[in-house]
Amino acid sequence: APVTTRLAITGMTCASCVKVVQDTLEKLPGVLTATVNLLLNEASIEHESNLTGPRDLIDAVENVGYEVKLVV
Ligand code: 9UX
User: Fold this and answer.
1) How far, in Å, are 1, 3, 4, 50 from residue 42 at the CA level?
2) Between 20 and 30 A from 26 (CA), which of 3, 17, 36, 72?
3) CA of 13 to the centre of ligand 1 (A)
């Protein structure tokens, strides 16, 4: 069943950043939706946890150049 993970993302400063992060997340296996809020510096991801876990989400966004923390 899908779960929702929230990430706090540092370093997004324009709308293109939002698109980069959103596209990065949506390409991961098992990700159903990825919503990125530029004002809140936060992403909310619905994903199948057996295919992609929070660590995978964090690593993917870090790898395109942002600083990421899990919102707990
Ligand atoms: Mo905008 Mo984001 O010009 O890394 S794409 S700042």
Assistant:
1) 23, 16, 13, 23
2) 72
3) 6
Residue 57 Cα to ligand 1 midpoint, Å, equals 20
Complex ipTM: 0.81
Task: Give 52's DSSP letter.
Answer: -
pTM to 2 decimals? 0.95
- The ranges assigned to domains in the chain are 2-71
In terms of CATH architecture, what is 2-71? Answer: 2-Layer Sandwich (3.30)
Closest protein CA for atom 4 of ligand 1: 17
Name residues contacting ligand 1 (CB within 6 A): 13-14, 16-17
